[in-house]
Design a protein that fits this description.
heterodimer, B: mainly beta, 7-stranded mixed beta sheet, 11 strands
Chain lengths: ~110, ~120
């Protein structure tokens, strides 16, 4: 399984850009990188997915360097409601796609 | 449309009791996943169905855990002779495309989970 490593926690203030980096040194050729967000008492929610370079959607951007051994989730102008746990997954087929790790707890302060 | 629903939302069991947790996936979603999430940890994969076929049950922690999806829609996770270490949130997720499920390219939609407390 593609093991991922993320910071345990991060703090930010409203309006700032937050970048959460995930390392996945043993990522395989067919693996994709997926980020989920989880609020207390809720199931995880898909944020963004990518394979290489940059992906952007309405809520976040995902930067993946050429060697794909890491990725960075970028949240522009965070608000208090972005306080959550963020999980990085790196996987391909079957169970390789489904390993969540411990996640990064983001706390946004006013 | 309706999302993934799970019932009950909370369950308290005495050690040794059997419990059954239900998951209603999004209509039309072929793939269904069960996860176990301990306090302060990320979700841990338990098992995966494509329609009624259980394709991967490698994450089930013991033979006390059993999951089924007999008609390819609703799924039940059963835990026999519950132990205190079974206390956790049990999450269910479904996804749409069977060709992509498990390939890291298909979005999983999660339910709110069932919080199981074993006394």
């Amino acid at each position: 399984l593609a093991k991922t490593t993320q910071p345990i926690s991060m703090d930010s203030y409203e309006g700032q850009e937050v970048n959460i980096t995930c390392s996945h040194n043993n990522i395989a050729t067919n693996d994709y990188i997926t980020w989920y967000q989880q609020f207390p008492s809720q199931g995880p929610r898909f944020i963004i997915q990518g394979y290489k370079t940059k992906v952007t959607n309405e809520v976040a951007s995902l930067f993946i360097p050429a060697d794909r051994k890491s990725s960075t989730l970028s949240l522009p102008r965070v608000s208090l409601s972005d306080t959550a746990v963020y999980y990085c997954l790196a996987g391909g087929t079957g169970r390789r796609a489904l390993t969540f790790g411990s996640g990064t707890r983001l706390q946004v302060q006013p | 449309g309706a999302g993934v629903s799970q019932s009950p939302r909370y369950k308290v069991a005495k050690r040794g009791q059997d419990v059954a947790l239900r998951c209603d996936p999004i209509s039309g979603h072929v793939s269904l996943f069960w996860y176990q999430q301990a306090l302060g940890q990320g979700p841990e994969f338990l098992t995966y169905f494509q329609n009624e076929a259980q394709l991967d049950k490698s994450g089930l922690p013991s033979d006390r855990f059993f999951a089924e999806r007999p008609e390819g829609s609703v799924s039940t996770l059963k835990i026999q002779r519950t132990q205190q270490e079974d206390s956790a949130v049990y999450l269910c997720a479904s996804s749409r495309d069977p060709r992509l499920a498990g390939l890291g390219t298909d979005t999983q939609y999660f339910g709110p989970g069932t919080r199981l407390t074993v006394l």
